[in-house]
Amino acid sequence: MEADRESGHAARGGSRAGAELGASEARRARSARALDGPSEVVAYYAEKDFFEDDELIQLVTSILEGNLTLDWYRVETPRVHARPADPGRGLTYEDCNLGPYGYDAIPEFLRDRYSMASRGSALLAKLPDLGYTINRRSDVWADNVAALYEEAKARRWAPAVDIPWGELDVAADPLREAAMAQACTLLEEVALVAMEVPSRWVFSINQEFLELKSFLCAQMIDEARHVEACRKRALVSGQGLGRASVSAEQALKELLSAETYPEASLATNLLLGSFVLAMYRALAAVSQARADRLLATLSMQDVARSVAYGVAHMRYHIEHQPGKAVALADYLDRSEHTVLGIAGTPEFLEPLVLLAAGSRAPAALARGAAFARRWFAGALGEYQERCGAAGLGDRRERSRLPRIAASLAG
Amino acid sequence: MSYLSTTDFTEDPGFVDRFRRTMKGDLELSWMDVPRERVRCRPQNERRGLTFRDLDVGSYGFTEMPELIRQNRSFAPRGAVQPPGLPDLQAEVNRKSEVWAYNIEGYYEEAMTRQWNATTDIPWAELQDTALPEDIGKAYAQLLTFLTEVEMIATDVPAKWMGRLNADFFEVKNFIATQAMDEARHAEIFRKRALSTGWGLMRASSHNEFNLKFLRDADSFAEASLALHLQAEGMVLTLFRFSEYISPTEGDKKLFRLVMQDEARHVGYGMQHLKWVLDHFPEKRELIHHHLDEAENFVFGAGYATEVLEPFIILSGKGLKKENVAEGARITMAFQVKQTEEYFERLAKCGLPERRERSRLWRMFELQKQQMGLPTQ
Prior knowledge:
Helices cover 61% and strands 0% of the residues of chain A. Chain A contains 16 helices and no strands. With 410 residues, chain A is mainly α. Chain A has three domains: 39 residues; 56 residues, no CATH class; 273 residues, Ribonucleotide Reductase, subunit A. Chain B is mainly alpha-helical and 377 residues long. Chain B folds into two domains: 52 residues, no CATH class; 277 residues, Ribonucleotide Reductase, subunit A, CATH 1.10.620.20. Chain B is built from 14 helices and no strands. In chain B, α4 packs across α11, α5 packs antiparallel against α6 and α11 crosses α12. Chain B is globular, with a radius of gyration of 25 Å. Classes of the chains: A mainly alpha (410), B mainly alpha (377). At the A-B interface, α1, α2, α3, α4 and α5 of A face α1, α2, α3, α4 and α5 of B.
């Protein structure tokens, strides 16, 4: 497996070398060899050359002549009849939580299932190892994950058509539009990272955790929607996109590179999610147009799902692995500073103050700043409450963020 | 310990001071006056709303995006002002033609507006009222077991690549996100339907699992896409179409129509991507052929997947009696011919007409047609 990966890297390197425009002839020649070298371009080969396999030809010919093997027909898997508990709600994953097929039956450790065989189906002796590295239930699971997946589908929206773009009168208040464009530039950056976090992990998570993996897919499309909505809002403003934020991106890279899935989930769903939820709520509060309110409130409902998963995931994780609470609290000690770099970056905070103020007049700016102080204190308080509910203890004593928030009052 | 930000923001006096001043209403507003392209995008068609195509303007758009992304290695949105100090996110794929597809923005917008819900968009209550005879019920449950087994490969593989793509290719990343959701929904609907038939899930398919491993381990995004979007999903698309035809109830026909519309989009992306690669990165042609050589080996080996072939015969012939099986085999062979023909037609349309001459799968296919008394090329 490792050898396969090594050869994969060699092939990618060769492809890129060949790709660079203006490369020397020698580099082109090397690249061509890399492209042509069979051992370097396919990572996994079938165990047989099936075109030379007489046994296969005989089998297929026999079946098509009517001699079915029916090996699969004789398997004795449990017979169930999933039905909607509430026909108005349709057939949910909860309705399918039946016997060995259900998510309640997933064991804490998956020791003998490394393929994509559907949970509960009859397994054959010979199934490949697909390389999953996350095989412990309490590393990923949350009691609300199936319900959150169902909600994500039911509450889908499409920025292209569900935001009344035509109602925006962007010429009326250029200052407000500039602030909105800058805030949305920052939120687009955040959403790009929030979309990548689930994508990084889903490949490594055992397929038995189907409902959880499906929820990660819902998170991806939610965040794709936020990338889209925020970019569109910035580009209808007449101001263009604003400035990327160094502090936010440094902080986001730190969160994105969390080493384990529980840390990644804590970082992005609970920590970052709490503040991003507050950021969208603030935008909704200062919006003057229905389109902006809708953009913010619809995004809030998506982010709220990630936060709800983050809290429930941490609760489940710590209940089943209590020894991890110390390490996760230590992770937060190190990582909480990132939300100051994101929510407190001038590329978001200044536009927020301006949007709340409505003008650059000193009295208005004072009002806007007061709004921002209340907003930050509220976001921090909610985050700390969630940490407590998740079993991460009272962060008020330990976190460095309350000290900074307290200093704002002075 | 993984990447750490260059600054601990709570311990950075300069950052904290600036934060406090902002919170008192003392704004610098340096972002406001930075030179930038000031555009005002509007919907070209009010009924379609504001699309990514409407945003294809100047440095913000995808048309002017260069082939090699040399400037942006961060998450700065394409066209945004990039101050010094942005981190390098270590993107591995920075060449547009490795990932791009004609009409990618259209596929994404379509995906967003055509999301559907497996929980509520299928008449589950009606399906409960239809009892399937044992041979049909078991065959259908086995076909559904296969389908739910393979669907999420098309989540895992593109998702694996998403983080490796440069952020400037966000339209592709967004499309991948929609595909991930589409496939989760497909795995869900086939699983739910299998569990509502009264037979439960049946047997996993060893041969198909090895094929999934091949799809997971592709060495580049272009190869992964070729084998996944164009070859595998293309063949599954034909399978869905025939499955609709042989479905036991109207509710099941609706199920297949819904998944088909998603699958067609994925195949569309695969085709338009391959076309883009061949148009802009012709050096890849030989590598593509080599990858298809092995992908087609797996396709041919699918004869070992009796968990798919035999249920298909039973469903097509509507039973297990001798005459049913004979009729089912006839329909199944017609399906296989159609599936293979469509696959090679897609490749030809993408600019790979010579594939037929090189492919052993094509030669075997021609032989099969001869045996069936069908015209060959």
